[in-house]
Amino acid sequence: MELTESHTLPVPQQRAWEALNDTAMLKACIPGCESIEADGENAYAVALTAAVGPVKARFKGRMQLADIDAPRSYTIVFEGQGGAAGFGKGDAHVTLEPAGDAATTLAYTARAQVGGKLAQIGSRLVDGAARKIAAEFFRRFGEQLGEQRDSGAAAMDESAGPATAENAANEAGDDNVDDTGSTDASQTRKRSWTAWISKS
Prior knowledge:
- The chain has 5 helices and 7 strands; from the N terminus they run βααββββββααα.
- It starts with a strand and ends with a helix.
- α2 crosses α4 (123-172).
- By secondary structure, it is α+β, with helices and mostly antiparallel strands.
- The protein has a single domain (2-152), classed as START domain (Alpha-D-Glucose-1,6-Bisphosphate, Chain A, domain 4), CATH 3.30.530.20.
- A 7-stranded antiparallel sheet has the order 1-7-6-5-4-3-2.
- A hairpin with a 5-residue loop joins β5 (73-81) and β6 (87-98).
- Helix content is 42%, strand content 36%.
- It is elongated.
- The longest helix has 50 residues, at 123-172.
- InterPro entries: CO_DH_gsu, START-like_dom_sf.
């Protein structure tokens, strides 16, 4: 089986690279993923539940990152065992290229072999299941990146908001006074002093 696809991610290249190496992000995006844990240098132990046609099983496997060229590309070598359901193994070459200042094109070519019951159900069902899992992963991955980007922008706006308002008030000076009492401290003191003199 060979699968080649490309997707546009709504973040710069460096951020996309960091997300691809964030195990918490990957766990949240891989359908059926139960755990991803470090298992040596640039290697991870993975457990997930997947359904391929009539076969549904819990797979345990390992993936190793090789040919790392941060933040542009790497190769994932993977293998997994699903008990009576069979096994799967293969590799995927992943590349990241800038698509403007705030987007990245992710492309990959994956090759895999399956055995056991998985091999018996036919290549068409296996290919279809792989494409479905990949599509769901990238849907979730894009949504997660978009949410992080939006929340980061909102946090920046909130932190800049009060300072911007304060600077605007300072630049406006003492003449920028409204009738609701929203004045700066110096203008308030001037009014109080004038009222005290007039009463005297």
